[in-house]
């Protein structure tokens, strides 16, 4: 909609219509209706924001109205949250104060608005310390009133929905923040739909070509999936009806981001993803009915009709997920029609109450917990956040890292020797389990018995393991324990024990670094220290210094040449992309309206470097990171490192692209798998060297039991050329898979 040409009357009607929509949504909720309070909050916010516009041109009040509607329709929140959403920008953007809000709307709403004001402007600012401090303020609001976070979540969701009006560089920063914290936080609070939408919007703005391609493929396949769904559920409905079970059945087709993530993590092609379709059966139970029994009854009906894949059955009834989610998940084989292949379909079974909690997260949890004293998963999480806040002498950056870990909802369930169940983070070790049982067990742990077999303290545990901890009175915590433990309790207790040793390691590391820089006649400025830390690929300053002191870093790799000025060829054009900061003539700031198109000369110079973590080549969607005043690193857009850079250093992200007339060759690595046979290597070399006529850097194939796997590094001009090579290799008899992989280059 075009907002810039609206008349005053049209703007007024637009705003009033939006408020009517909010009131209607509120009237349809099951909350106690406080229309007068909501109307007063709207009138106050509307007058406060009068005359203000968003970048899209729409009246600013439309944003608080949209946030309030998300609170009621998508989060199930009531009048306090709705009013707080309507007022959430008043204190920041106008002359009104928190006291003004308190005098008009009461202490609860004022406290929420105050919390939202303190964390406004995005989590991350320009400097690392400021980013961490803003983030810390966000976390501090959790124990006081979780509704601050929930309204902030709604605020972020609406900002993501309207992100197209923002400058491109700002889009990269905001999507980076969203994937880094808001999407995981939405999952932790049980807002699955919001998490999914945030992830999809991030993919849409970070990698528009990939998003559109996946969206089109899913849309093209949807009619076939719908047909499969109708055929699949027909006999299930017949059995449920015969048993007089009240139910509803829904279909879920995988979202673009979910498909994309599976492609990246599993290395799958689109047509190799078998679980694009999932079926949800929601059972409407009578009061007093055992909800778990109701789910198991439906489970029995489904498995009597279709063959179950027992390895993929998940029981979230007995032990809820960390975000309160309950359901039975099973995967069954649906036979193909008219000669088509059979395919797996995931079935989710849950009751109406479980479905409500899955859809509305924390708000629904409150609704059903009313009057129940039992400690829930959310209560446990809130307690863990309080414990995190109580830890003394922790720098803000470390604090942020700890909370990010605290958001993890992937868990395992491990048994004690007596058969008691303990919940741990996925990938937890024997040592983590020891600390989970008791601090003294962790401090003196020397190993364990996992399913009656001896195991080291570093061994990762899996769900279902039974673990016995072995201890020794002479055992004491060591610094290297911090390298492999996963749980917050283990880290905190180890750090407390090792605090003097850690301080000593930090001093030693700093001394080694300063002495080396002095030997090279390099000043110990923050810029140079950060350059060295980045050179070795470290994100955390203290981690680098500790590893340096422990001999895990070869500081001699940093030479005087490392600091020499590099080729200046690119800067004749970069000055069109960057402009000098008036306060500091040596500092470059981004002109956000420009895109830097990379040429062969740029890539060959040391001013522009391809990140070794993802090795981007021409044709890849990339972002640029201004490493320092004179160097740019380019990453593939989907690279995990790029996501962290977007989130933590949004002010250093620049827009980059590839100049079409670029004939530079890039080394890239392909993995190849298939059935071994005589003459296969000769066929591969012929395709690469003769048919495609490109150079081979190395080939390494290993055959075992008739199957071969290997890596081949070649020189290509673009990712289009990689696709052509892959297609030709797959035409060779016995080659079954060819994939481009990221190999860190030395």
Task: Describe the protein in words.
It is a single chain. This protein is α+β, with helices and mostly antiparallel strands and 746 residues long. The chain has 6 domains: 8-165, Hypothetical protein af1432; 209-369, 2-Layer Sandwich (Beta Polymerase, domain 2), CATH 3.30.460; 388-494, Ubiquitin-like (UB roll) (Roll); 495-563; 571-658, no CATH class; 666-741, Alpha-Beta Plaits, CATH 3.30.70.260. It is built from 28 helices and 23 strands. Strands 1, 2, 3, 4, 5 and 6 form a 6-stranded mixed sheet that branches. β16 and β17 (632-636) form a beta hairpin. α10 (168-188) packs across α26 and α15 packs across α16. The longest helix is centred in the first third of the chain and has 35 residues, at 208-242. The chain is globular and about 75 Å long.
Q: Describe the sheet with the most strands.
A: 6 strands, mixed
Low-confidence stretches: 122-132, 565-590
Discrete helix count: 28
Rg from Cα: 29 Å
CATH homologous superfamily identity of the largest domain: Beta Polymerase, domain 2
Number of strands: 23
Strand percentage, roughly? Answer: 15-25%
Shape category: globular
What percentage of residues falls in helices of 4 or more residues?
40-55%
Structural class: alpha+beta
CATH class of the largest domain: Alpha Beta
**What is the number of independent domains?**
6
Under the CATH scheme, the architecture of the largest domain is 2-Layer Sandwich
Arithmetic mean of pLDDT = 82
* CATH fold title of the largest domain: Beta Polymerase, domain 2
Distance between the termini: 52 Å
């Amino acid at each position: 909609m075009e907002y810039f040409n609206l008349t005053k009357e049209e703007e007024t009607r637009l705003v009033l219509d939006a408020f009517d929509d909010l009131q209607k949504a509120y009237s349809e909720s099951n909350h106690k209706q406080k229309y007068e309070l909501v109307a007063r909050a709207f009138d106050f916010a509307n007058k406060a924001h009068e005359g203000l516009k968003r970048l899209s041109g729409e009246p600013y009040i439309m944003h608080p109205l949209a946030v309030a509607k998300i609170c009621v329709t998508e989060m199930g929140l009531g009048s306090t949250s709705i009013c707080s959403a309507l007022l959430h920008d008043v204190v920041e953007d106008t002359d009104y104060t928190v006291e003004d809000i308190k005098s008009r709307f009461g202490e609860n709403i004022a406290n929420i608005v105050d919390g939202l004001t303190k964390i406004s402007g995005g989590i991350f600012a320009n400097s690392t310390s400021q980013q961490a401090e803003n983030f810390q303020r966000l976390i501090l609001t959790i124990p006081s009133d979780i509704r601050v976070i929930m309204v902030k979540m709604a605020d972020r969701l609406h900002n993501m929905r309207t992100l197209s009006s923002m400058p491109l560089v700002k889009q990269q920063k905001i999507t980076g923040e969203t994937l880094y914290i808001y999407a995981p936080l939405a999952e932790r609070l049980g807002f699955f739909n919001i998490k999914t939408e945030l992830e999809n919007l991030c993919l849409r703005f970070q990698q528009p070509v990939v998003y559109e391609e996946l969206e089109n493929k899913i849309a093209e396949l949807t009619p076939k999936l719908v047909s499969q769904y109708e055929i699949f559920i027909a006999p299930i409905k017949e059995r449920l009806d015969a048993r007089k079970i009240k139910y509803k059945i829904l279909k879920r087709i995988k979202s673009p981001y979910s498909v994309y993530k599976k492609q990246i993590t599993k290395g799958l092609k689109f047509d190799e993803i078998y679980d694009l379709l999932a079926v949800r059966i929601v059972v409407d139970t009578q009061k007093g009915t055992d909800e778990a029994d109701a789910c198991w009854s439906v489970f029995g009906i489904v498995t009597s009709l279709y063959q179950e894949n027992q390895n993929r059955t998940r029981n979230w009834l007995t032990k809820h997920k960390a975000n309160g989610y309950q359901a039975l998940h099973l995967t069954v084989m649906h036979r193909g029609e008219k000669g088509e292949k059979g395919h797996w379909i995931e079935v989710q079974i849950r009751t109406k109450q479980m479905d409500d909690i899955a859809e509305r997260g924390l708000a629904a949890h409150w609704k059903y917990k009313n009057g129940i004293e039992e400690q829930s998963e959310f209560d446990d999480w809130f307690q863990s956040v309080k414990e995190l806040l109580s830890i003394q002498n922790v720098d803000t950056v470390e604090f942020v890292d700890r909370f990010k870990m605290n958001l993890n909802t992937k868990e395992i369930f491990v048994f004690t020797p007596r058969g008691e169940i303990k919940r741990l983070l996925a990938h937890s070790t024997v040592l983590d389990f020891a600390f989970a049982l008791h601090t003294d067990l962790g401090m003196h742990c020397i190993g364990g018995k996992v399913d009656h077999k001896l195991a080291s303290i570093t061994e990762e545990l899996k769900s279902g393991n039974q673990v016995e901890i072995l201890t020794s009175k002479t055992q004491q915590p060591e610094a290297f324990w911090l390298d492999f433990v996963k749980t917050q309790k283990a880290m905190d207790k180890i750090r407390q024990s090792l605090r003097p040793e850690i301080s000593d390691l930090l001093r030693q590391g700093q001394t080694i670094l300063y002495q080396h820089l002095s030997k090279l006649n390099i000043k110990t400025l923050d810029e140079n220290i950060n350059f060295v830390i980045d050179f070795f690929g470290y994100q955390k300053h203290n981690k680098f210094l500790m590893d340096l002191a422990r001999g895990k870093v070869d500081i001699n790799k940093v030479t005087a040449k490392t600091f020499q000025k590099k080729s200046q060829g690119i800067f004749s054009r970069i000055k069109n992309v960057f402009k000098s900061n008036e306060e500091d003539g040596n500092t470059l700031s981004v002109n956000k309206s420009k895109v830097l198109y990379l040429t062969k000369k740029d890539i060959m110079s040391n001013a522009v470097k391809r990140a070794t973590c993802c090795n981007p080549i021409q044709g890849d969607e990339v972002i640029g990171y201004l490493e320092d005043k004179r160097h740019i690193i380019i990453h593939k857009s989907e690279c995990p490192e790029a996501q962290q850079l977007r989130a933590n250093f949004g002010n250093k992200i620049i827009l980059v692209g590839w100049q079409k007339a670029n004939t530079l060759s890039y080394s890239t690595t392909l993995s190849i798998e298939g059935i071994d046979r005589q003459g296969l290597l000769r066929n591969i070399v012929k395709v690469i060297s003769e048919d495609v006529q490109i150079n081979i850097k190395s080939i390494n194939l290993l055959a075992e039991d008739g199957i071969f796997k290997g890596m081949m590094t070649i020189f290509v001009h673009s990712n289009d050329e990689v696709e052509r090579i892959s297609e030709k290799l797959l035409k060779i008899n016995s080659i079954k898979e060819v994939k481009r992989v990221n190999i860190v280059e030395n």
